[in-house]
Amino acid sequence: MQSDSFGIIGYGKMGSSIVKGAIKSALFDPSDVMVYDLDPSRVTAAASTGLRVVKSLDEMASCSQLLVAVKPKDVPALAERLKVMMLMRGVLVISIAAGIKLSNLESRLGEDARIIRVMPNIAAAVAEAASVYVANRNATKQDITFASKLLNGIGVAYLIEDESMIDAVTGLSGSGPAYFFYMMKALEEVGRRSGLPAPLVRSLVSQTCKGAGAMAVSSPEPFDQLIRFVASPGGTTEEALKVIESKGVSSAIIDAAAAAIEKSKRMNY
Ligand SMILES: NC(=O)c1ccc[n+]([C@@H]2O[C@H](COP(=O)([O-])OP(=O)(O)OC[C@H]3O[C@@H](n4cnc5c(N)ncnc54)[C@H](OP(=O)(O)O)[C@@H]3O)[C@@H](O)[C@H]2O)c1
């Protein structure tokens, strides 16, 4: 029998981030979320936040929506089990697995399965994710509304119709937080070399990234203009930008994200 429970299979980095974000945004009460994970440490983490942890996959049969948040390599076997359990009747399956196409999921879960594929990012943990999602032909309006509520509750989310756009999204916003963390790590090194106290550096770097992001989100100005707001002629920022440009940082970032996009295309199956 189905309940209104939302089920998560795989309470790892992304699964737990999405749940934390959804609870932070009051989308669910912890007691309405069922969790199944093979890793005992994840199970303990889920139980400690008041989530309903189950010991067997079969117990997830009562959920109305299932978020599949295991690594892509673990999806095929899991999907076969879900099909065997005949779970798919009346259950919306939301997959966040990178590279696993709707057609692949349908072939494993059944042609009549209702499926939504999402590319979220790790900032779901603080309800600041950027997600893109695509629904298969069986997904109902209510399914799309549910996904929209869930994903907009943990950040911003965009529904797309062309599934092939997910590769570019993966290279931009799926992997994107790591690009910014990488730059923050480099700035942290600058703080260390300058002899500033580590906690002060951590706070300055993090808040600067958050502030720049908040300005970019709220301002209609092009990024070039935002750069000009900081870089007055003959000033310190202009000096830094000259070095950034001479070292080809922009093309390195473009090449890096392009490599992620190509990898995503190769991973597709
Ligand atoms: N991390 C990101 O930034 C990011 C961004 C966008 C999308 N994604 C997608 O999110 C998904 C999850 O990634 P992640 O980084 O969160 O992985 P993760 O931290 O490794 O978490 C996956 C969890 O699922 C468990 N698991 C594996 N097979 C299972 C099964 N059959 N039933 C129940 N639990 C199972 C794993 O346990 P074991 O460790 O014991 O196997 C692990 O605890 C991936 O498909 C990835 O492509 C991740």
What does it look like?
The protein has helices at about 15-25, 40-50, 75-85, 100-110, 140-155, 165-175, 175-195, 200-220, 225-230, 235-245, 250-265; strands at about 5-10, 35, 50-55, 65-70, 90-95, 115-120, 130-135, 155-160. With about 270 residues, it is of the alpha/beta class. The chain has 2 domains: about 5-165, Rossmann fold; about 175-265, ProC C-terminal domain-like fold, CATH 1.10.3730. It has an 8-stranded mixed β-sheet with strand order 3-2-1-4-5-6-7-8, sandwiched between helices. α5 links the parallel β7 and β8. α6 crosses α11.
TL;DR?
52% of the residues lie in helices and 13% in strands. By secondary structure, the protein is α/β, with parallel strands linked by helices.
Provide key terms for this protein.
single chain; 269 residues; alpha/beta; Rossmann fold; ProC C-terminal domain-like fold; 2 domains; 8-stranded mixed beta sheet; 8 strands; elongated; binds NADP nicotinamide-adenine-dinucleotide phosphate
> What letter string, H or E per element, gives the SSE order?
EHEHEEHEHEEHEHHHHHH
Total domain units: 2
Distance between the termini: 33 Å
What Rg do the Cα atoms give?
21 Å
| Biggest sheet character | 8 strands, mixed
Helix content: 40-55%
Task: Find the CATH superfamily of the largest domain.
Answer: NAD(P)-binding Rossmann-like Domain
**C-alpha geometry:** elongated
Structural class: alpha/beta
Mean pLDDT: 94
What CATH architecture of the largest domain would you give? 3-Layer(aba) Sandwich
Q: How many helical elements?
A: 11
Query: Beta-strand level of the residues, as a percent range?
Result: 5-15%
**Strand arrangement, largest sheet?**
3-2-1-4-5-6-7-8
